[in-house]
Amino acid sequence: MEKEFKDYMKLLYKIRRDKFTRTALNRAVKSFRIKRDEALKAFPHVEEEKKKLQETKDFVINHFDDFIEKTEKSVKTMHGNFHFAKDKDEALKILKGITGTGKTIVKGKSITSEEIDMNENLEKWGNTVYETDLGEFIVQNLKSRPMHILAPAVNIPKEKVAELFSKIANRELPPDPKKLTEFAREYLRDKYMEADIGISGANAITADTGSVFLFENEGNIRFATNAPDVHVVFSGIEKILPTLSDGFRLLEVVSRYAGYLAMTYVSIVSGPSKTGDIEKTIVYGAHGPREFHVILYDSGRSEVAKDPVLAPILRCVRCGACMYECAIYPITTGYWGYKYMGGIGIPWTACISGGVEKAAPMAFTCTLCGRCVKYCPMEIDVPEIVQEIREKLYKEGLVPPFIKNMVETVMKDGVPY
Ligand code: SF4
């Protein structure tokens, strides 16, 4: 534990000194705050909407079993295939059953897929995977991992992206975001049509209709989920909302807190494509996918739902707003994290993906300043939850010795060193 904690602190100090990361983060934080404030000012009713959404999410969290059952029924009614995976092994078994081997797969951004190391496993089974979100495409080609929930490559400055894309393109590309985006667009265009399978996450799945809400700005998710023959949705159970109308409320809240007046694209997918144009006979598999799969993933979520202190973490709508306001995140980016990063990443690491031991260094890096609560639309009290996790770590003897010694010195001498 001591070595792990020291290595982790060394990594954070190293990142703090990395001028590329600092430059990229300074630009991103400044730009995000302006955009979010403008969006919230333009649509003040979002404050009321977010309260209603909090209540709805709490209701679902308290009745997961019922809502999973309803969602299954609705997905099947819409001629989709429903799967439930209680843990990583089950999720991978289901996924392998759908994808098999030798397939070309295009993917939309999904932090949940990181929980099961989806790309690594798909490739291990002999498939070729293309991340299509620009940030994820950068991360995939850098062989790195997402550093923010919404902006996976937030820590990479344009100069580094130009270097990377120049290597892929085999020609010199300038550090100009417009030109770099143009290159990614050209490169990925054919991949959508070649792909056998498209995989996406979900912003929401509505229990009443089995519909999957997908919010995006780039347009890649539309291609990735519409062009291939098979669309697979991989989503945590916390994404379930009772009704279609709740999905639209979520859209308003997430968009504004993520700093957008509106998302460019909103797709609502309810089953495979179909037509009734010939004698009103319904035929499944028209222009879009012929097969539609929803994999709902638990991995500890239903257990967390039973704990009154931890349950609010399942409200998280992944808007990413908290990270830009955090005291630590703008210095460390997602290196202050495992699969999930930042303050909210601490309980997600401890309870959902990674385990309490992996969360220990993160939990003891948090300053408990509470700025994240102020800017979180779901008003998740991360500092309170982090205290709970520290308590758990203490009981399990997982407090890093460096911290333990410091506390003992304070108790004895009144000063930390
Ligand atoms: S914790 Fe709150 S602010 Fe942070 S990503 Fe989740 S919903 Fe957004």
Description:
Strands 1-12-7-4-2-3 form a six-stranded parallel β-sheet, with helices on both faces. The chain contains 20 helices and twelve strands. The protein is α/β, with parallel strands linked by helices and 417 residues long. The protein has helices at residues 2-17, 19-42, 46-62, 64-77, 88-99, 111-115, 118-124, 134-141, 158-169, 177-194, 220-226, 244-257, 301-304, 321-325, 329-332, 342-351, 356-363, 371-375, 382-395, 401-413, and strands spanning 81-85, 104-107, 128-131, 197-200, 204-206, 211-216, 230-236, 240-241, 265-269, 274-275, 283-284, 291-297. It is globular and about 85 Å long. The mean pLDDT is 94. Helix content is 52%, strand content 12%. The protein has two domains: 2-42 and 320-413, no CATH class; 46-302, Rossmann fold, CATH 3.40.50. The structure holds iron/sulfur cluster (SF4). Iron/sulfur cluster (SF4) is lined by residues 149, 316-322, 344, 376-378, 380.
Write a short abstract of this structure.
With 417 residues, this protein is an alpha/beta fold.
Major beta sheet, specifics? Answer: 6 strands, parallel
Total number of helical segments? 20
Ligands bound, unique = iron/sulfur cluster
- Mean pLDDT score: 94
